[in-house]
Design brief:
Layout (H helix, E strand, L loop, with lengths): L5 H16 L8 E7 L4 E4 L15 E4 L5 E3 L8 H10 L5 E5 L2 H9 L8 H4 L14 H22 L9 E4 L3 E6 L2 H25 L7 H12 L8
Antiparallel strand pairs: 1-2, 1-5, 2-3, 3-4, 5-7, 6-7
Helix pairs in contact: 1-6, 2-5, 3-6
Length: about 230
């Protein structure tokens, strides 16, 4: 049945299907959302439902203002509050993905930024992917899901990072979040982040060292895909 929210439900459903298909999350360890800013809502995966069992109409519609359920008969993902806070803080994004993909999650658990080690990384991210600080016990016990967003936003503000240029973050001791202008793009960035992290592990295992690429090469590769004079693609 078509509703006012059908298009964002369809976009969120398709993004969640790709999380499962791309093996970015085991079991139900991940979620994707798509926003409709004119109505002030976003569609997100319901909590605890396996990807293969999802239907378009299962996508829960939540308010950007407070993540409350606006439409739907299922519980929203437990991360809905994080998504809502990121939509409020980063008005340019249209979709968010959170996974526990193995390599990116392992890197997040170290508390280290993911350096830009090669042109594959530079094609997607305009610099290192930052890792947030760990949440304090007070932050965990008071409003854990909201404070997950708080440390992400804090990281980008303190480091003067542009979320459009670096559309990914590693939440310390937790896992990756990615975003884009659409939920489709956010999944693409989650795939890219997992691939780049896997390459970083391989590089370290081969050499015992992690040497970032020169800034000029980083800028060239990023700008050719995302800059005002981009030459990549049709």
């Amino acid at each position: 049945m078509s509703t006012t929210y059908s298009w964002i439900q369809e976009e969120a459903w398709a993004a969640n299907q790709r999380i499962g298909a791309e093996k970015l999350a085991a079991l139900t360890w991940g979620n994707a959302s798509a926003v409709e800013r004119t109505s002030g809502v976003f569609a997100i995966k319901p909590s605890g439902v396996p990807y293969e069992n999802l239907n378009v109409e299962d996508m829960v519609i939540c308010s950007i203002e407070d993540a409350s359920v606006v439409y739907g008969n299922k519980k929203a993902s437990s991360d809905a509050i994080t998504h809502a806070a990121l939509y409020r803080a980063f008005p340019e994004i249209g979709g968010i993905v959170h996974t526990h993909s193995p390599k990116a999650t392992a890197w997040a658990q170290t508390g280290l930024d993911l350096p830009c080690l090669g042109t594959t990384h530079a094609d997607h991210f305009a610099g290192p992917v930052p890792c947030t600080r760990p949440l304090t016990p007070e932050e965990i016990n008071s409003a854990y899901v909201l404070n997950t967003a708080v440390v992400i936003i804090e990281t980008f503000e303190k480091r003067s990072l542009n979320p459009a240029a670096i559309p990914a973050v590693l939440v310390g001791q937790h896992g990756p979040f990615t975003w884009s202008e659409s939920a489709t793009g956010a999944v693409d960035n989650a795939i890219a982040l997992e691939a780049c992290t896997a390459m970083a592990f391989d590089m370290f295992n081969l050499t015992g060292n992690l040497v970032p690429i020169p800034d000029a090469l980083l800028r060239y590769h990023y700008e050719r895909k995302h800059g005002p004079k981009a030459t990549y693609g049709q």
